[in-house]
Protein 1
Amino acid sequence: MQSGFAQELHGKTALVTGGTRGIGFAIARAFLERGARVAITGRKEDGVRAAVASLRDAGPDRVLGVAAHSARPEDVARAFGEAQAAFGTVQVVVNNAATNPTMVPLAEVEPEVFDKILETNLKGYWLVAREAARRLREAGVPGSIVNVSSVAAFRAWPGLGAYGVSKAAVNMLTQVLAAELGRHSIRVNGIAPGVVRTRFSEALWKAPGAEEKAAARSSLGRIGEPEDIAGAAVFLASDASRHVTGQTIIVDGGTTTG
Ligand SMILES: NC(=O)c1ccc[n+]([C@@H]2O[C@H](COP(=O)([O-])OP(=O)(O)OC[C@H]3O[C@@H](n4cnc5c(N)ncnc54)[C@H](OP(=O)(O)O)[C@@H]3O)[C@@H](O)[C@H]2O)c1
């Protein structure tokens, strides 16, 4: 029997939240390079504009940017609406926009900071997945939702407590959505990166000696680059993963197993 699939995304429309830089940007570029039409979001209008301009070489007529906050239902609906109007029903969604504004012990996190983390990292992911699922079911087309989690969901990282709690919840969001949406041919999976060189994680690699320390914890001897995460996203978005759902793939260079 022939496999009948390719890791190609020709003809698919994807929406990547937080696609203006870092991991989301690398995923958006990888999707464009494989033929998808891609909408990216970010809160800041200028960031969206700049990212779209630098993605154009990968797919001049296939990229769109929408300034939208993932945790605001009206922004989420607008982002999907604009993507759908430009490129058709969004079949691939990458929930990637997340935040971690603090690095203090969990017992010292202020309530409003805790709320902010859970609002973006968990409620935002749920709102985006909910909008995607509604539109996919209405259109009667199959889909793939990919939730970017973190290794902090699996093991306690002192100083990243509220963030780790939010990502552990994202893993269960992935499992429940997969169980409920499978019958509608909507797959839901996650990717859990280790330390990746982005603005978000600067505290973990930028200070003198920090990168070497983080790299030493990994079997592959280096921290991740945003492009290292994009391959798993392409796999989960494509038909190559057509029988995979409810899983969270750890992409950390072997940090959690080394
Ligand atoms: N970097 C790592 O080491 C690492 C490790 C494990 C997991 N992760 C996960 O990987 C994902 C991406 O992280 P990153 O390192 O690439 O971060 P990043 O470089 O800081 O990029 C974050 C992106 O999200 C957008 N964003 C933030 N809050 C948003 C909101 N409420 N609504 C819409 N967009 C929002 C940002 O644009 P605006 O600022 O314009 O909104 C930006 O495009 C996150 O889920 C993170 O938890 C990262």
Protein 2
Amino acid sequence: MTETNTYAGYVGLIGRPNMGKSTWLNALVGERVSIISAKPQTTRHVVTGIYTEDSYQAVFVDTPGLHINTKNALSRMMNRSAQQSLAFVDVALFLVEAGRWTEEDDKALERLANFDGPVMLIINKIDRIKNKERLLPYIQSCQEKYDFADIYPVSAMKLADQERLRKAVLKKLPENSFFYADDDITTASMRFLVAEQLREQLFQRLNKEIPYSLSVACEKFLEEPNVIRINLVVWVERDSQKAIVIGKGGQTLKLAASQARRQAEQIVGKKIFLETWVRVRSGWADDEQALKAFGYGDDDNSSSTI
Ligand SMILES: Nc1nc2c(ncn2[C@@H]2O[C@H](COP(=O)(O)OP(=O)(O)OP(=O)(O)O)[C@@H](O)[C@H]2O)c(=O)[nH]1
Ligand SMILES: [Mg+2]
């Protein structure tokens, strides 16, 4: 009888905000575990997505994009948890936007200064580059920045690129026993995932400073045989923001909540009865105690696997 070897490891997604890290985490895992928006600084927690195929298991680790402007406690916590998550990563995916390399990219790359595993450069959003001839000199300039193990020009929207990158990542995993069951998709708790669905909807629907002034906390999660009863509280910093989040006739919150509920039902595979409130707490993003209560900066979002 021959023994089959198994390969398993942690794969970190690193890069400045808005590069498509969360989009890629979801694409590589094939599930909606990390939230996405067109606005920078969407991801606030380290979120894992687990992919298992045959004798391979990759635990993808999404990180908040590096914040250069670390003016409040939330930004500092986000940078810290992104940096800490790198300590146990076996392979790193460093994401940039095709055709652009900014000072912020340099700063994000500095995070990998003490990392000695392979770093794959993901040149994302190539669908936006009309003149493909521009790519070659761009790739050459990237090679001067770091000794990347491989360079992948890709689009997260293209299925063939998703499959190609997934295969390449699996091949880089070290020989290890699996860390999780082969049907686990994340270490995040259902409470966290449900709250994040509402934050995603509000992030996508609201403008200016409001997405950055709000946080969503799960205050009740009661599982009954046929339904899960969930209460979510949206925290904002001012009364004027509360009015905008609720919207005319309650429409903004109502539409965001019903879309969030549908997404959450898909993730948990069960009917959800969702109630939402908006509350004001001035300065929560710079208040370490409030941040702890909202689940930032600790392992609160990783209590169980689903
Ligand atoms: N055209 C195009 N858009 C993409 C691609 N990948 C991601 N996007 C878009 O880029 C935006 C940012 O994506 P996210 O996945 O939220 O980016 P992120 O790096 O996780 O950002 P932070 O969480 O803020 O650090 C979203 O609007 C995505 O739909 C791609 O390959 N092509
Ligand atoms: Mg993200």
